[in-house]
Amino acid sequence: MEESKHPKQYNLRKRQNISKSDDNKNGHTISKETSTKSKYSKKEDKSSETEMISHRKPTIELLKDWQIIYTKLHQVSTICSVDDYTMWIGSPSGSLLKVKYDLVRSSTITYIKEFEYPDVDFYDFCYDFEDDRILYSDRKNSSITAISSEYEISLFKSFRPLKPSCITISSDNYIFVGLVNKYSYDESPSRSIIKMSKDGTVCIKIDSIQEGKVIFTMPHRCIVNNINNNLIVAAFEKSKSKGRILVFNEEGHVISMYTDDRHDVKFSPSFVTCSPGGDIICSDEESGDIFMLDSHAKLLNIIKKGNCRIYGNSCSMAWDTNDQLIIGTKSHPSPKSTGAIQLARYIHDTESKD
Predict the structure, then answer these.
(1) Residue 9 belongs to what H/E stretch?
(2) Coil, strand or helix: which one is 151?
């Protein structure tokens, strides 16, 4: 009904605003004022269309539904992409593996190097592109330990008596590490996240308790959002079922936070990553649901586990050099169960515009 009325209103305004006229290229007499309003109306229509597109919910699509690459790990808890065909994968109390892969053409991976537990006992790890090495939070030695490209293991920095948890490295080569007095969810002023340079100098310390309020008790995973240099942390507060996504600015202040406020719903984020456009992606360990947030931790969409055909529960994600999403999964408990890897793409409004 509104569409049929709109042309009549437009023609009425056109007749009412006849003033100084010009001949257009088609020989029709039009008003300058009418021409301006006509252009303005078209701009309004385009802006409405853009606004409608921007409200489309982001989603994740597997590149090949049938392609599941099984690993020797019970779960792929951390992934670090090195280049088009190389990545590191690992599982705490399991192994840290360097593998070759071609997920587009093949459903197999080749194991290049394996560091087994308890020789390497890590909580989390990241890849240092500048120095071509792995940095992992060493639970056994309460330190950050490095593995070089020649597979030599060396101490990077000790934190005794504290223990390291999450670790990441920014594009400008600052290292962020979560520190706890013990691996638990207990409240303690000893818990923090630090930012340090590669020589081990601490630049910023983010305390877990600020102004008498507990911000987090267990920093589990972290990453720096490259679009604004904010630190994104998947953390827990007093319980593993009380997870939250925290956004810290460059000065270390909390600027936003996401918690799942649905009634009687436990939220336990197993990982956190950021898309090339700055969106935050995490997954709930128990349900397998994937949460997509904007760069300020505002909820954009929740993909239910059964709607995305991911094998098992997703427990890690990383971006390859082609901005495709590598998903690591945790299998259902069984004697023969293994974690797997799948390849996907992340689609947001501008990418999904037809």
Answers:
(1) helix 2-16
(2) coil
